Amino acid sequence: MFHNSFKMKMFLITLIPALALFYLSVNYMYEKYQSQKHNQQLMYFTSLMQSSSQLIHNLQVERGLSAGYISSAATQENKYKLLAQEKKTDLAYKNFLKLLKIEKENMHTVNELTFNHYKYLLNGILSQLSALKTTREQVLKEQISFNEMLDFYNSANAKLIHIIKIVTLLFKHPLMGPLDIYNLELLKEKAGQERAYMYHLLLSKIKKEAQILNVETLISEQNALREEFLHSTSEKYRKLYYTLVTPEITHTINTLRSKIFTSNFDQKYAQEWFEQSTLRINSLEELSLYILKNYLHTIETLYMEANRSFFISLLMWVLSFVAFIFLSLIVNKLINRQTELLQDLQIASYTFNSHEAIIITDPNGIIVRTNKAFSEITGYSPQESIGKSTKILKSFRHDEAFYAHMWSTLHTQGHWSGEIQNRRKNGELFFEKLSITAIKDAQGNTTNYIAQFMDITELKRAKELAEYQSEHDFLTDLPNRKALINKLKEELARAKRHHYLDAFVFLDLDGFKKVNDNYGHKVGDTLLLEVAQRLKKSVRVEDFVARISGDEFAIILCNFSLDKERAKEDIAKIAAKIVESLNKPFTIDGVHINIGASLGIRFFPEDVSDTSSIIRDADSAMYMAKENGKNQFVFYCQTQ
């Protein structure tokens, strides 16, 4: 009886693993088959993204050359360059069309609605590009405006970029960031639009304020997209970005922008701008294609591995027989070590090899394990941290309510995430993106806490700097036009709400152009810096001084009585002080320079509901001051 019982037990011991291995092998082969089909789709759509990226890049170059050609610079040389680029674009378009032969059965994982949306997008871009020949003819015959040409290419590229986004999100893979290529293509497109706008402005005789504002907006959008890409992508591609888009390239572009804006879009910078901006865009294109090529290589490798699944399954069967021999020997050890192994498996399920710092604590917050990234970020070695409380990192920058809420969330939900400021071993404060998870046993009791975090100090600083630069003048550090308009909107609403009378001052320097012509732009820049300082000293603390562009400044004078005559007297005193201050000679590099200023003043919120009217009226009054002999101020009157 015992013998039969023992045989039955041994039979079950061998049969159950055999059945389990059979089940696992069948599932393994089925998973590999599904992986093979999925990777086949990924290879196709990665190739489509590569082709789309190359087509976008060529359309961007063609747009830039077209912008220069229709800006009264239609020379034979420019025409030759444009025609040569059109051939490159046609080749990229031909390659793109080859990849559009999609059969519906190859998209069996995509629902009908998504498939129809995808086909709709493809039909839209094909319809758009069918008009490419007509647009090119209009460009060569100069029968199309700059804005019409720009809208055509912008629309085509927007559709192509949207296709990349749809494909990326539908067929995403953990080996590549979900929006890496999409963010890069957006960044490259904004850079291409800036190239076209600037090239057109530099070669045109008429400077359009709207286009200049568009350039400033594009610069701000590029900064935001660059930070978004660098924040979301992997460390590998972040390093590659700085290798291809070198600090020297970025510095050259920023320096050239400064020269162009300072020189009021001098035509001599046109060719240098086109070449340098193209160099940066080509670097972004190289990065995009590298990521896609690397991604495609990885998918091809996975595809080949799936083909070898059958042989791996056979190997699993052979190994199973060997495993049966040792199974009876290790069962007893497995039972004895079950509790320890379960706990280790629980910890292992939450930990992985990552560049993020990892801390494992006991239920009381005492550190029991750390990884290498933790030591690199905090400065504490494992010997210095294990056995200590996590309070060694405490910065004392958060109140008790903050920690109470964090622990309450951990106890009720089992996890917490957010930003926190901590302190390194050397006393330096740093910001981190922190995620804490509670590990529980079978009875629901917390056995450990796992905290993962990454140092985001530099990212926060870069974001703050980008936000500051987007609203401040690069030369004088005064608020720029964007910041001025935002402030004016706030003051207009506040003045209406609290019944104050404010004034907007539009200021233009008299004789500044002669300074640049006679002494050079370096002296002109220094003069603008000193003008900015004198303006800030001439107004009150609550007033707002901004540089609009070139030698134009604007001032918002705040909090005056509703008694208009009394307010006019007070504002006139400030305006006179400004005129007097700018009348005093400037001494720069041993040279005495005399300039003046013409001021136009517009009260608000009386008889006005929008900021553009305020600025326009003040500008009108400023020109009246110039016509009256300059070096004075004039209040806007509705009858003028």
Describe this structure as you would to a colleague.
There is one protein chain. This protein has 3 domains: 269 residues, no CATH class; 109 residues, Beta-Lactamase (2-Layer Sandwich); 165 residues, Reverse transcriptase/Diguanylate cyclase domain (Alpha-Beta Plaits, 2-Layer Sandwich). Helix 5 runs antiparallel to helix 6 and helix 6 runs antiparallel to helix 10. It is globular. It is an alpha+beta fold and 640 residues long. Strand 11, helix 21 and strand 12 form a beta-alpha-beta unit. The protein is 65% helix and 13% strand. The chain has a 5-stranded antiparallel β-sheet, sandwiched between helices. The chain has a 5-stranded mixed β-sheet with strand order 7-8-6-11-12, with helices on both faces.
What layout of secondary structure does this protein have?
Blueprint: H1 2-69, H2 76-98, H3 112-129, H4 132-140, H5 146-170, H6 180-203, H7 209-232, H8 235-244, H9 247-262, H10 270-307, H11 309-336, H12 338-350, E1 357-361, E2 367-370, H13 372-378, H14 382-385, H15 400-413, E3 415-423, E4 429-440, E5 446-455, H16 457-470, H17 481-498, E6 501-510, H18 512-519, H19 521-538, E7 544-549, E8 552-560, H20 564-583, E9 586-588, E10 591-593, E11 596-604, H21 611-627, E12 633-635
